[in-house]
Fold:
Amino acid sequence: GGSCGSFLGEYQAGGTIIVLGLDRKNGVPAGGYLGTGMHGGAMYIRSFEMPRPYGQVNVEPCSPADMAAIADKLEKYADNFGVRMEVILSKPFWKLTPSQDNPYNSLYAAF
Structure:
């Protein structure tokens, strides 16, 4: 629900990371070297500002399909921690995925 420090998703090989940054009004709620060596999975960052990952990571605004893919996780968080969905959805989300140019993709992850 809060922010995180540097090296989030370092060598992420799969799975999903969602950073809500509910403790921040401004700025990206993730530190430096975001996604260093990422070769699988996806990260979703809630922020008015576009995250600036390190290295070969794609960043794009979340599409309606992306938001539908994480909706159940967001709803569970909201229910468990007493946060209104309106608050969670009050900022845009960005999706970070490994670039096809990443040399580790062929070693660790199948696309």
Remarks:
- The first strand starts at residue 13 and ends at 19.
- The radius of gyration is 14 Å.
- Helices lie at 64-81, 85-88, 105-108.
- The mean pLDDT is 89.
